[in-house]
Amino acid sequence: MKIKKAFRRVGMFSLFVAAFLVTITSISNVSFADVRDWVDYEPMRITNTVTNTVTESKFRQSSLEKKELNYLEQKKMYISSDEIEGPKTLEEAANINQYPKSQVVATGYTAGVESTGKSPGHPEYGITYSGVQVKRDLYSTIAADLDVYPIGTILFIPDYGYGVVADKGSAITGNKIDLFFNTVEDVYAQWGKKELDVHLIELGDGTLTEKELKQLNETDSLQVFRQQITES
């Protein structure tokens, strides 16, 4: 029994060694014959019968030097044009041509004293007629004639973005709208006064809450454009 166990162990060890050598060979790309040639390598001597000189051949050595390790070629990842191409601006993404349009005169305003008569520290500073805080975002707060565009109405204003009617003003009547900007400098640098076509996305019902405005600004499909708006 002991002899059988010994033979069995020897056989198992031999199989393990053979498997290990096969694995090393497949990875290194060096065969058993290459190893034997390397160990037993003796330069071949070639005699030139004309000059009677002896040179050593490097052929066998160089053949081993050219052996390279096998490696797995990394698969190239290709992205289709459909995956990398798409709307580059918020206006393209909105597909505004499907919505009715009307011509308005659009001006800009801020939360400051120059537009509202209120300074920071005033209890109603930055608070619109609807009760929400003024905001410049994917969906910004704007003022309009509430008889034309009730509170909650969503307009798309080219070069500005989505505007949600949240406020009114004594000078904002008829076809006039007022767009919120964070600073007076932004009003002059980015807008001023423009006559243009706006698109009616949704007519409001007369109400607007902070929760509704937040949900609009968290629309997943529009987040890629958020930086364009907030840093403009």
- Which sequence of SSEs, written as H and E, runs from N to C? HHEEHHHEHEEEEHEHH
Helix content: 25-40%
Give me the side-by-side strand order of the main sheet: 3-7-4-6-5-8
| Alpha carbon gap, first and last residue | 88 Å
Query: How many runs of DSSP E, i.e. beta strands?
Result: 8
Sheet with the most strands, sense and barrel status: 6 strands, mixed, barrel
For CATH, the homologous superfamily of the largest domain is named as: RlpA-like domain
Number of helices: 9
Class by alpha and beta content: alpha+beta
Tell me the number of structural domains.
Answer: 2
Unreliable spans are 57-69, 74-84
Structure description:
- It is a single chain.
- The protein has 232 residues and is of the alpha+beta class.
- The protein has two domains: 2-65, no CATH class; 90-230, Barwin-like endoglucanases (Beta Barrel), CATH 2.40.40.10.
- It has helices spanning 2-28, 32-39, 59-65, 81-84, 90-94, 113-116, 184-191, 210-217, 226-230, and strands at 44-48, 53-57, 101-109, 139-144, 154-157, 161-167, 176-180, 193-202.
- The strands form two sheets. Strands 3-7-4-6-5-8 form a six-stranded mixed β-barrel.
- Mean pLDDT is 78; it is low at 57-69 and 74-84.
Observed structural traits:
8 strands, 33% helix, 232 residues, two-stranded antiparallel sheet, 2 domains, alpha+beta, 6-stranded mixed β-barrel, Barwin-like endoglucanases
